[in-house]
Amino acid sequence: MSDRVGKRRLGRIGLVAALLAAVTTPVVTTATPASAVTLPTGFQEQVVFSGLNLPTNIEFAPDGRIFVAEKGGRIRVYDDLADTTPTTFADLSANVHNQHDRGLLGLAVHPQFPAQPYVYVLYSYDAPPGQTAPYWNDNCAAVGGTNGGQCVITGRLSRLTAAGNQMTGSEQVLVQDWCQQYASHSVGDLAFGADGMLYVSAGDGASYDVVDYGQRGTPINPCGDPPGGAMTPPTAEGGALRSQDLRTPADATGLDGTLLRLDPATGQAAPGNPLAGSADPNARRIVADGMRNPYRITVRPGSNEVWLGDVGWTKWEEINRVPNPTSGVTNFGWPCYEGAGRQGGYDGANLNVCENLYTGAGQTAPFYAYDHAATVVPGETCPTGSSSVGGVAFYPAAGGSYPAAYQGALFFSDYSRDCIWAMLPAAPGGLPVASNRQTFAAAASNPVDLAIGPGGDLYYVDIGGGAIRRIRYFPGNQPPVAQINATPTSGPAPLTVSFNGTGSTDPDPADQGKLRYEWDFTNDGTVDATTATAQYTYPAGGPYTARLRVVDTLGASATATVPIQTGNSLPTAVIDTPAAGFTWAVNTPITFTGHATDPDQGTLPASALDWRMNLHHCSAPDNCHIHVLQEWDGVAGGTIAGPDHEYPSYLELVLTATDAGGLTHSTSRRLDPKTVNLTVATNPPGLQVVFNSGPQTTPFTRTVIQGSTNTVSAVTPQNAGGTTYDFASWSDGGAQTHLITAPAVPTTYTARYLDRGASVRLPQSQLDVADVSSQETLQTNGRATNVLDGNTGTYWHTRTRSSALPHPHWIDLDLNGSYQVNRLHYLPRQDSANGRITGYEVYVSNDGYTWGNPVATGTFPNTAAEQTVTIPPTTGGYVRLRTLGEVNGQPWTTVAELNVGVVPTG
């Protein structure tokens, strides 16, 4: 457990507490860099706005105002870069579904603002299709959480009208669509082209854990994807396959995983779109599809050329380019492709939508893709592993404050890696060259959006730090960086505070160690001390603000401030439950309670407590990024279900207490999941099986969270050692591609394969009795399934205790797969009491209902040995043995064991 203290900012600070190292002495800075950011020579990072609550998007209006979207649904507006007290332009929180990766994510200002006084928003709407928000009220616990497949929402694009710094009237809904079944891959971004049209991106709304073709949810297929009902390969078109919906025109087109080009006044398809003649209004809107999560988009200045940062699954991050949105629909291939190659998980599921794309239906490779396991720039310090491409922004092709080499460059960021890169053109102002990349900002702070602001500086949104950061270029002398360390910052009066400014720095070698310090302890304009360290005693009253100005040898300066409160002491937040060491499985109820005390107020009321549950998603123990699962404000506790998520990952519960004077204290507790090892094998060993995202050679073992849902796909057909193998069955009875719910104990799952071309007997455990005409019901050994138990002492016996049933009798076997059947193996029950079958017919069916003519007929010899009936090779999934008569005058049928021989068809 860790404790943090700090000054309360606008909104809640739970995520900030989760991201910062534990401190006992506040460090408050103004216009300072990120903690460890590394920039090219001459560049410096500064904080321009702070105190925001999970900011997601920044937009600069033509008149100088700056709009910032917060994930929960609020839009803040600043008059200019000097404004430190923003106005709330709009509050859409009642409509916004703010859980996990869902929220207010897209923002755009009309290019003729304020003459055209419109602000555009794209957000996750808190209601399923056809319902009205607030429906879930940001709480999906009753349906297994946001990643349980049942918390279905939609996306909404709206236009807001500005009157001064506030929205007037109600939002004008332009588009409501984008059925989103899972917690991630929600709506994306907005941008205007040089043509004045509005470009809109959104994700596929599918699961990030499993190969999702629409097979989950209660009811199954809540988004109504074709062909309808339960989804099974190869015909399924749901889940991530929604990104390919334009290629299945038999049904209405959805907008998931697409880029739209719209008339900004109406939300309808813009004139000149590639499918303008389609009868489907959504098809008319689409200019690109086949994307997983195009979280951020940008338009190359002076053009309609759209570039997209598409967040990948487990292997590749993509930068996609649509050179001319009106020339044709560009398909980037997801989920059939990831990066330039086939996506192993969806390829292994043998889905028609993908198989058709593989055979030449058309797929455009990304302009640039980077592997999760590789650096973007060789030798850089940016980490590998967990990756999620974030912002994208073009530097102007001419002018700007940066060196000429950056003119026309594409900046792009990765939220998980905390880095920003520049993709430079071969010559200033030209097209970026994918291979011409440089690390621009290593160890940046949670960058989720990039923008070029006034003067040609790069700005980025720091979602975790609740800040907007600017990267400036100083061709000559760089200003210093001011930093204050103050202790204590609150307490009873008189309060003596020790100040230390030695953490202040200057990037220029000539200025290092030569800074001048000017302290103004009450922020009244008077310099009170000029040493690096100082003390000051505050009387009762306040609150006060202490200011430090540091000046370098050439007169460049920077300031930092810290708030001081006298007569008020910090509260203490305490998490009571769950206790340290608590572990959880998927859907385990996690109930939490807490309290807070204050030296001045005593026990704080529940209204002073704010909670946040963070999910840390890791690729390595020291490489994690955060998803905010849920927030609870003003309550003493609550409950959340353990999320379904891949491992390694863990939860962090953060409690923040705020006293009447605005002082806060945060404490957190790490909650680790219960895990289990799942082993995947094949018979014969050494073949390829897909586990979730990609194929791997068996046997292998994966550690997963207990209760998590995972995909296994037996790759079929496949070649090993010159032999072609076809999938036969799974040891757990599942289909070739199916879902596994992780048990609490280690388990092995084995895929059985057959040698193509070799006649083999199917494993007894693969067969099921599909139907039977009659059977002994009063004796244990009369059950029809006895023909599959491998025990010659038990058998199928067609009679009742009191009467004999006349012939014919039949028993049907389900082969659990399609095969070329060429043999029926039959073990008769040979004794005087039970008789012996003399006449038989054998049938083969594809569906178990339509049987046609017999494929073999005959009589059995008078023997107790197993008999083999040779069948002309016939393709099917069901086999029927129909018995016609018997000897010894007994009107019943008795069979000890049945089996089928096949030649795999592939």
From TrEMBL:
Keywords noted in UniProt:
Signal
Which PANTHER family does the record match to this protein? HEDGEHOG-INTERACTING PROTEIN, HIPL1 PROTEIN
Signal peptide range: 1-36
Looking at the record, the residues that make up the PKD domain are 480-565
Q: Is this entry keyworded Iron-sulfur?
A: no
UniProt source species: Micromonospora cathayae
Asked whether the keyword Signal is assigned, the reply is yes
Region (Disordered) spans which residues? 220-246
Protein name in the entry: PQQ-dependent sugar dehydrogenase
Residue span(s) of domain F5/8 type C: 747-905
CDD domains cross-referenced by the UniProt entry: PKD (cd00146)
Organism superkingdom: Bacteria
